[in-house]
Amino acid sequence: MTTMALPNPVSLGLARGTVELRHFFRQKEAVVFTFAMPALLLTLLGSIFGGSYDGTGVTAGQVFAAGMIGSGIVSTSFVSMGTGVVFDREDGTLKRLRGAPVPPVAYFLGKIVLVAISSLAEVVLLLLVGTLLFGLKLPTTPEKWLTLGWVFVLGTTCCGLLGIAASALARSANGATALMNLLYVGFQFISGVFVTPITTLPTAMVDVASFFPVKWICQGLRSVFLPDSMASYEMAGTWELGKVALVLGAWCVAGLVLCRLTFRWTDAR
């Protein structure tokens, strides 16, 4: 008697990603909040805080736009991943998947597909808002496009992993939504997303933010979309791209370790 082999984990993960995307886009309220909130904040902040930076020709709206693209990536990776895992745990999805003849990696690959596509869509949306309303310019050199690529990949990866790890802190879906958004908003403030330039923030606050990914994601993206003259408005006076890569890479490793230590398939503690 022959047995039929199961599809490989990658195929199952891609199939699971299709399910995740379909489920996500059916939740109209969640979709509107996830995509519209960063765009709305960018529109409001960029319109309220006018003016330009001396000698650079860069407006406050353009600086907000560059930072909010990073903030949007955090929203679609950290917040969406954290709340999504808790919802799956609460409604029994994780328990059913755990009991099915499906490798666990397929579930996480499905989440990666969701985060990658939704994060890319968020970047495109914020770029449209930034270019149409505030004159944000697209990168003009291959080096800047490359920087955009690796900041995006490292940023979504580490924030997605940290979202999975943070899901272990929430006892319910409602609690997860509150917790993830509280952390999300708090890190935006201390990382200089809502306040420009970042040098106007208290040094101690920025020192705390420097331990976490949000500051470095936004700093890396400012280096992509703003001229090099704006580097003088960073805390170190340079873009510090090497440190951006180092910190985000370290958080990818740390996030993976935290996921292995904290992830739960059921509500049992």
From TrEMBL:
Keywords: Antibiotic resistance, Cell membrane, Membrane, Transmembrane, Transmembrane helix, Transport. It comes from the Bacteria. The keyword Transmembrane helix applies. The chain crosses the membrane at residues 30-51, 63-87, 108-136, 148-170, 182-205, 244-263. Residues 29-266 form the ABC transmembrane type-2 domain. PROSITE patterns: ABC_TM2. InterPro entries: ABC2_TM, ABC2_TM_bact-type, ABC_2_transport, Nod_factor_ABC_transporter. It is found in: Cell membrane; Membrane. It is a multi-pass membrane protein. Belongs to the ABC-2 integral membrane protein family. This is Transport permease protein.
